[in-house]
Design brief:
heterodimer, A: alpha/beta, B: two-stranded antiparallel sheet, 9 strands, about 40% helix
């Protein structure tokens, strides 16, 4: 039996608590009355989200409560959920004001007439559409979420929810058409001219730009018709569905712009005539033109691409000279010539060096594509190979910035990797929440490695032996049905059997069996301030003993320390990467591990999971050495929030095929570790002193 | 000791003559190079992505040179004795049985080891002496050294696209071979091949090639390899058999190159855009 509908009073009571009306003075009465009219199922859905959003910000939740009943009439629950998440994300990213503004603007991509439209959500369609757009040739475009539908010639920006048409399927097709249309703008030269200047000569430049979008829509649809007929058919169908049509007097333009050699210049030539005609209402997939954003992206890109192309060409020239003259210096000036072939939808380049054709590597081809799309040709000054030292490498290389210098500056997120974090109150991720950086550990050459080996001499020998025994070597398998050689013992037996009238076995061969231990393990070491003193020393000793043992075994392993203070400064300290050999520097880095700040754990688990995922190994293990529960400075991370985020990160790791395991010396860990790691995947040591002796042993048993 | 080949277990080279001309469109001077290498008793290495015509080229060359072709598809459990031969037990007797490589050497055929990097490392012991000017096959278990006749030819293939360090060809091996590089044919040529092999119209073949280029654009951003010419031919055959083009692309191409759901959906949309 379905539960009874909640009354307005009951809802108001709930809202009073969640929205703390006693202090915030939000008037929840009207919202409660509207909610009271909904079916119980919808009530539960909306109330749940109000409660979850309230953990982020109360005013946001109040805003959601006011709008949700009306939205439920127009949209399905999935889309509203996406909208609620977007509200919180915008708040995380840009604050309260942006979040409320986003709520206002979202209406544009919502249905106005249809009831209960099933929208598509950016997160769901982005992976598909970004592959789709990469498959279409041209510059690599990045798909991003934003508040409108437009492109700046590098990014394609889409709103978080698209719900213009009634069904999710139709809306997905629409999203695809929109992405393809934006792609067509970059591919077929909508930005080859300065659109701002072209529109500025009209009394109302804004209106001119809209009319130009109309003309370009006609031209680009004709281009797509030729290139991708299936897509063009679908776009025509969508336009009919959305009741998009050409304004009066526009039919004449479509004839002119449909020809195969129509270019942007033709659209611009027709613009004065179109300006006199009725307003063009943007079609469902046409989005808007933002020439200012395009100009900005182009300005940033062109210098860099010119430098990169010229440096690459200089490399090519040198290579070909070496091949021809056998290592002599390139002589004279090298002349590159490029002929673009842009026919039947294929864009290719023919490159010659001093009239001899050469095969350009992929990166040169991509650069040429990008330059061609910006200019409609390859400008000759782009083809002059760069002279020695003509360009500062920073112009054409992505440079890793010194994290400490960045931290001093104003933009803390520059060059860092961003990780999400699980918000238990919201029951959803906070996107790009943790600003993570890898930093090197400064090696300390104080003989720590030598002292540790001396201190644990006997133990080291025992560990080495134990680990050596675990190594799988080739061995001979006897009595196999197939094999490299005849198994004489088996054969003699079989012949004897045959003489005696018994059945003869067919397992008469030996084969060499090669077993491989194929394990990659990442050690995640607590470098929080609480490890100061002998815990830190025990950790370092444990790592030394572990490395000595692992070297015998041949497993691939990496060691990272983690620490941080607030979400803006999450740090992972590289002690040893998977590829590095266990050399003197690594030993000195282990010696150099020093306590830092706090114990935010989610980001570290997520990052190491990602590193492990990139390694090819049959078994992947993530071992955490820690001294206590997750914690951070003056932050919600302390307490259940941190535990839940860590648990979520560990679940993600398991989903990625990584086996997490925890070794801790926190005696209270029994309260939370089973919840995090499951009942069998952790070990609590009662005494710090045991750490060095036990860690390697635990690892051995773990991977036996 | 008299060695009796065990009929049921050994390859009969006479059955490996190719009597009908296999369809092959040269994309460069690979035929002339191969013929020159064969005439000079040099072994040949074919490089290139999967499904771009390496095996077909070998069949074509075997037909041209009128030699039997013995193809071995290498796998990670393929040992030297799988190539050379081994003793089998039959009716209380141990009998020696030649492996495919030995058979090819004995009759002076062409032995083609497909995807050589997949084989175990110990196979190199028998490949190296065959691949340099010694041209001998050591048969360790028989204590014999088999000399290759002049018309024997060794060819191996490998796909440099695999990025695993474990699957790389050693310098000592690769420097023994004349290398021929294969790649997907140029669009016009590929269209001709697809139209010819699948028996479809040029217009349709052109769209398949366009779709293939889209998937090749995706290499590196989610796909390990783009659609090969072979897959295009498969799709073309399905279409010729009355299957809808988008469905044919999905079954013959998309499902063949990836399992990723998002990628499959993206490829479906791409093919729907082309047709």
């Amino acid at each position: 039996m379905p539960a009874a509908r909640l009354s307005a009073a009951a809802i108001e009571a709930l809202l009073d608590v969640w929205l703390e009306t006693e202090f915030t003075f939000h008037r929840v009465g009207a919202a409660a009355r509207m909610l009271a009219e909904l079916p119980r199922q919808d009530q539960d859905f909306v109330l749940d989200w109000i409660r979850r959003i309230a953990t982020t910000h109360i005013t946001l939740a109040f805003n959601f409560a006011k709008r949700a009943p009306d939205m439920l009439k127009r949209l399905d629950q999935r889309a509203i959920e996406a909208w609620a998440i977007e509200l919180c994300d915008t708040y995380d990213r840009a604050g309260m004001y942006a979040s409320l503004a986003m709520a206002e603007r979202a209406d544009r991509f919502m249905p106005t007439r249809q009831a209960h439209a099933a929208g598509v959500v950016f997160e769901d369609v982005a992976p598909i559409l970004s592959n789709f757009v990469h498959g279409l040739a041209g510059r690599r475009l990045k798909l991003e979420r934003g508040e409108a539908l437009f492109t700046d010639s590098e990014r394609l920006v889409m709103p978080a929810i698209l719900a213009v048409l009634p069904t999710a399927e139709e809306n997905f097709k629409l999203a695809k058409a929109a992405v393809a249309f934006l792609w067509a703008q970059t591919r077929f030269g909508t930005f080859l001219d300065d659109l701002t200047a072209a529109c500025a000569v009209f009394p109302q430049p804004e209106r001119a730009l809209k009319q130009l979008l109309g003309l370009e829509t006609l031209r680009l649809i004709a281009c797509l018709q030729r290139e991708l007929p299936g897509l063009a058919r679908e776009m025509a169908r969508l336009a009919t569905l959305a009741e998009d049509s050409l304004p009066e007097g526009w039919a004449v333009f479509s004839g002119r712009l449909a020809s195969a050699d129509a270019r942007l210049s033709d659209s611009l030539a027709l613009l004065p005539a179109a300006y006199e005609q009725a307003d063009f209402q943007p079609w469902c997939f046409s989005g808007e033109l933002r020439p200012a954003a395009v100009a900005e992206a182009m300005a940033a890109r062109q210098q860099q691409e010119k430098a990169r192309l010229r440096v690459k060409l200089a490399e090519l020239a040198q290579e070909s000279a070496q091949r021809r003259t056998g290592g002599a210096e390139p002589h004279g000036d090298k002349r590159f010539a490029v002929t673009p072939h842009d026919e039947a939808g294929r864009l290719d380049f023919e490159i010659t060096l001093d009239s001899a054709p050469i095969a350009p590597p992929d990166d040169v081809r991509q650069l040429l594509t990008s330059v061609y799309l910006d200019f409609g040709d390859i400008p000759p000054e782009y083809l002059v190979p760069a002279g020695d030292g003509e360009y500062d490498p920073s112009l054409y290389q992505e440079q890793a910035e010194d994290p400490d210098a960045v931290w001093q500056g104003a933009y803390h997120e520059k060059g860092a990797e961003l990780y999400p974090e699980w918000d238990m109150g919201r029951q959803h991720y906070r996107k790009n929440w943790c600003v993570m950086r890898e930093k090197p550990v400064a090696p300390v050459y104080d003989g720590f490695h030598r002292d540790t080996l001396a201190k644990y001499g006997g133990l080291v020998r025992r560990l080495r032996k134990a680990f050596e025994a675990m190594r799988d070597d080739d061995h001979l398998e006897k009595r196999q049905a197939h094999g490299d050689d005849v198994d004489i013992d088996a054969l003699v037996e079989a012949l004897a059997d045959a003489r005696a009238g018994r059945e003869m076995s067919d397992r008469l061969f030996v084969r060499r069996h090669r077993a491989e231990r194929n394990i990659a393990v990442a050690f995640m070491v607590d470098m929080s301030g609480s490890t100061r003193g002998w815990i830190n020393e025990a950790e370092r000793e444990a790592l030394i003993l572990l490395c000595e043992a692992l070297e015998r075994l041949g497993d691939r392993y990496a060691i990272y320390g983690f620490s941080g203070i607030t979400r803006k400064r999450c740090e992972l300290f590289r002690v040893k990467t998977f590829d590095e050999p266990y050399d003197d520097e690594v030993k000195a880095r282990i010696g150099g591990i020093r306590p830092q700040e706090y114990t935010r754990m989610g980001f570290a688990i997520r990052h190491l999971t990602r590193l492990l995922a990139a390694i090819e190994a049959r078994t992947k293990v993530l071992v955490t050495l820690s001294d206590g529960r997750p914690d951070d400075y003056f932050d919600a991370y302390r307490g259940p929030y941190g535990i839940e985020d860590t648990r979520m990160a560990l679940l993600e790791a398991r989903r990625a095929g990584v086996h997490p395991f925890c070794i801790t010396i926190d005696r209270e860990a029994r309260d939370y570790l089973p919840h995090l790691y499951g009942s069998a995947h952790y070990i609590i040591l009662d005494d710090v002193g045991q750490l060095p002796a036990r860690v390697a042993d635990i690892y051995r048993r773990l991977t036996l | 000791m008299e060695i009796k080949p065990l009929d049921a277990h050994s390859l009969i080279p006479e059955e490996h003559y190719i009597r009908q001309e296999p369809y092959y469109e040269p994309s460069g001077d690979e035929i002339a190079i191969f013929q020159a290498a064969y005439a000079n008793k040099l072994p040949v290495l074919l490089k290139g992505p999967t499904g771009c015509g390496k095996t077909r080229f070998m069949e074509h060359m075997a037909w041209r040179l009128k030699r039997p072709l013995i193809t071995v598809s290498c796998h990670d459990d393929l040992t030297a004795s799988d190539l050379v031969g081994r003793y089998l037990v039959k009716g209380g007797e141990t009998v020696w049985v030649d492996g495919p490589l030995t058979r090819a050497v004995r009759v002076g055929g062409i032995c083609y080891l497909d995807e050589i990097v997949e084989a175990r490392k110990d196979t190199m012991v028998v490949i190296h002496p065959l691949a340099d000017d010694r041209r001998t096959l050591p048969m360790e278990k028989l204590g014999q050294l088999l000399e290759a006749p002049d018309d024997f030819c060794l060819a191996i293939s490998y796909n440099p696209g695999y990025q695993s360090v474990l699957k790389d060809l050693k310098q000592s091996t690769r420097q023994r071979f004349v290398a021929l590089e294969f790649d997907y044919p140029a669009p016009e040529l590929e269209r001709k091949i697809v139209a010819n092999e699948a028996g479809i119209e040029t217009n349709l073949a052109d769209k398949l090639v366009k779709f293939a280029h889209m998937t090749r654009n995706l290499k590196g951003s989610g796909l390990d390899e783009g659609a090969s010419t072979r897959l295009l031919v498969h799709a073309g055959k399905l279409i010729a058999g009355g299957i809808e083009p988008v469905v044919a692309c999905q079954s013959a191409i998309a499902q063949a190159v990836t399992d990723d759901a998002d990628m499959l959906a993206a490829m479906r949309e791409l093919s729907a855009s082309v047709f």
